Amino acid sequence: MNNNMNRSDKMNETRNKLITKLLPYLRKNGLQSVRMEEIAKVMEISRVTLYKYFSTKEDIIGFIVNGFADYMNELTSDILDSDQSFGTRFQQIFEQSVYLIEYFTDIFLKELETSYPDWYDRLNQAMKKREQQVLAFYGEGIQKGIFNDINGMLLIMQDELLRGMFNVKYLMTNQLTVQQILYDYYHLKKIQLFKPEKMSAIDDAIMVPRIEHLTQKITKNLF
After folding, report:
1. For the chain, where are the alpha helices, taking DSSP H only?
2. Residue 78 lies in a domain
3. How many Å separate Cα 137 from the centre of its chain?
4. Domain containing 127: what range?
5. Is there a contact between 73 and 126 (Cβ–Cβ < 8 Å)?
6. Terminal Cα distance for the chain, rounded
7. CA–CA dist 81, 89 (Å, integer)
8. Looking at residue 123, what is its pLDDT?
9. How many separate domains does the chain show?
10. pLDDT digits (tens, 9 = 90+) for 176-205
11. Which residues pair with 147 in a beta bridge?
C-alpha cells in the first residue's frame, strides 16, 4: 500500500516538474499546433519517456487544468479563513491574480475553449468559484469597516489590465519594467480597497520578495 502511494507521489512529482517546463512554451505558442514530439523536446525528455507520464496531449491539458483548479480552490479557501488578517488575505489574492493572468493568456484560453471544451468548462467553473469567494471576502471587509464600499467586480475585472501590460512592446514604448508595474499595481489595489486608517496594519515588506519572484518569472517568459 505504502509502496503504491510512494510510486504515485513520485509520478505526480515528476509530472509537475515536466509541466512546469512546458507551461512557458504553451503560453507563447498555444495548444492547438503543438505536437507530442515538440512537447518532449521542451520537457527535455524522449518521446518514450513522455508517454510514460502522459499518454496523450489531452492528458497533458487535463493535468494542467486540474492543477490550476486545485491551486485556485486551495488558496481561495484560505481567503475565507477569518483567522488570517485582511491584509494577508488581500496579498494572497493579489499574488494569485498575477499568476493566473500570467499563465492564462488569451491564446491559451481561446484554444482551450475551442479544442478542449470540457477542460475549458472545468477551468471556467473553478475561476467562477474563485470569483465568488473573492467577492465574499470584499463584502466581509466592507461590512467590518476595513474596506471602502466599492464594487468588487470592478476590482476583479481590473486585473485583466495586466494582460496588456505584460507585453514587451508595451513595456518598451512606455519605458516601464515588470517590477515597476507590479509594485505600482499592488499599491493601487491597496489604496482602492482599504480605508486610509486601516492601511497601516498591512505589512508591505512581505510582498517585496514575492513581487521580485513574480518579476523574475514574468520577465523570463517575456524574453
Report:
1. 2-29, 36-43, 47-53, 57-79, 86-103, 106-115, 117-143, 152-158, 161-165, 168-173, 178-193, 207-222
2. yes
3. 18
4. 56-222
5. yes
6. 46
7. 9
8. 93
9. 1
10. 999 999 999 999 999 999 999 999 889 999
11. 194
3-class SS of residue 37: helix
pTM: 0.85
Residues in contact with 178: Cβ distance below 8 Å, sequence separation at least 6, in sequence order: 166, 171, 214, 215, 218, 219, 222
- Are the beta carbons of 155 and 138 closer than 8 angstroms? yes
C-alpha span between 119 and 149 (Å, rounded): 36
- CATH number of the domain at 134, please: 1.10.357
User: If the chain, 223 residues long, is cut into consecutive pieces of 10 residues, what is the mean pLDDT of each piece?
Assistant: 65 92 85 88 95 94 92 74 84 92 84 92 92 92 95 92 86 93 96 95 94 92 76
The 10 Å Cβ neighbour count of residue 21 is: 13
Do the domain assignments include residue 18? Answer: no
CA distance 159 to 148: 18
Please check whether residue 137 is in contact with residue 89, taking contact to mean a CB–CB distance below 8 angstroms: yes
For residue 11, the one-letter residue type is: M
Residue partners of 45: CB distance under 8 A and separation at least 6: 18
Contacts for 93 with CB less than 8 Å, ≥ 6 apart: 79, 134, 137
Is residue 1 assigned to a domain?
no
Cell triple for 69 = 483548479
Let me know if residue 73 belongs to a domain.
yes
Bridge partners, 194 (sequence order): 147
Task: Report residue 81 as a C-alpha cell.
Answer: 479563513
Provide the 3-class DSSP secondary structure of residue 1. coil
